[in-house]
Every structure is written in structure tokens, then in C-alpha cells.
Amino acid sequence: MLGLRGRHNESQTMRAAALFLALALVAVTAACSKPKPPVGKWEGGMERGGTLVVARVEILPSGLVRVMAPDITNLTGPRERIERYRDRLASDLANGWGEVAPREFAFDGKTFRKPGGIAPQMVWDKDTNHMVLQLYIGANPALPVPLRPVAEFHDSPWASG
Questions:
Q1: Does residue 16 share a domain with residue 46?
Q2: Is 156 inside a domain boundary?
Q3: Alpha-carbon distance values, 82 to 7, 79, 104 (Å)
Q4: Could you tell me which of 38, 48, 54, 102 has the fewest CB atoms within 10 Å of its CB?
């Protein structure tokens, strides 16, 4: 009887070890799998310190990204002039969108970077599904452009929604 018990305990130990190894393998595989970028559309506009930017981002099911962000810098003058430039940028974005080719970005679950790059290009907030485009103009630090998720793009990304 003593011999049978020893084998039974040994068998349980082996099963427990096998289960542990299987769970560890699943955890390692999940940790090593590449995060999938969120599929969807985002748009927005930003006006700050003489800079106007409008932007669209579309992430395709393939993971490729279409992005366009025309801008105007060093803008001064009366409010009417600024409004005309806002309208022009919105028009440029809508009219040029069809020509934007999708491209690849590295995605770590939150931040998009150019393949092999270091600088963040976009940052996605999973909880709110909002995106922030990091726009680099000249040698200036990144200019964050907040984008909101949309079902379809609008004629003007300045529109609230």
C-alpha cells in the first residue's frame, strides 16, 4: 500500500507541474504577442499660439495607418483671417484625404512610432478611445493635437462631436 501512495503523490505532482508549465507558456505567449492597433477613425483640430492644425487618422483592420495633418504656423491677424485659414485647412484635409496612402507604424499597446523609430507619433488612450497626434514642426518639440473618435469623417474636423 505504501508503494501505491507514493506513485499517486508523484502522479499528482507531475500533473501539477505540467499544469504550471502550460499556464506559464500561455502567460509568456500572451506577454510576447504584438498588440493590435485599434481599428477606427479619429479627427480633430487645434489652434494655439499662431499655429493651426487639422488632422485625420484612420487605422485599418490590417493595422496600417492613414494620417494627414495640414498646418499653418506663425499666423497672426484679425479673427476673420484666422477663421478663413481654419476653413481652408479643413477643405485641404477633406480634399486631400483620398490621396493619403496607408503606412506601417510600430504599436506597443498605447504609442505609435515609425518602424525602428523612437519619437512617439500618436498616443492612444484605450479607456476613452481618444488619440493624440504628436506633430513635429521644424526643430520644435512635439505639438500634441487631440483627436476624437468618429464613425465617419466630417467636412470640418473643427466641429464638435
A1: no
A2: no
A3: 83, 5, 34
A4: 48
The model's confidence at residue 127, banded by pLDDT at 50, 70 and 90, is very high
Burial class (CB in 10 A: 0-12, 13-18, 19+), 15: exposed
Domain hosting 122: range is 40-150
SS3 call for 130: strand
Asked if the structure places residue 132 within a domain, the reply is: yes
Tell whether 29 and 61 lie within a shared domain. no
pLDDT at 73: 93
CA distance 105 to 113: 5
Lowest-pLDDT range, 14-18, 100-104, 107-111, 148-152? 14-18
Q: Examine the domain organization and report whether 24 and 46 are in the same domain.
A: no
Residue 20 near residue 34 (C-beta atoms within 8 A): no
pLDDT in tens, 71-123: 999 999 899 999 999 999 999 999 999 999 999 999 999 999 999 999 999 99
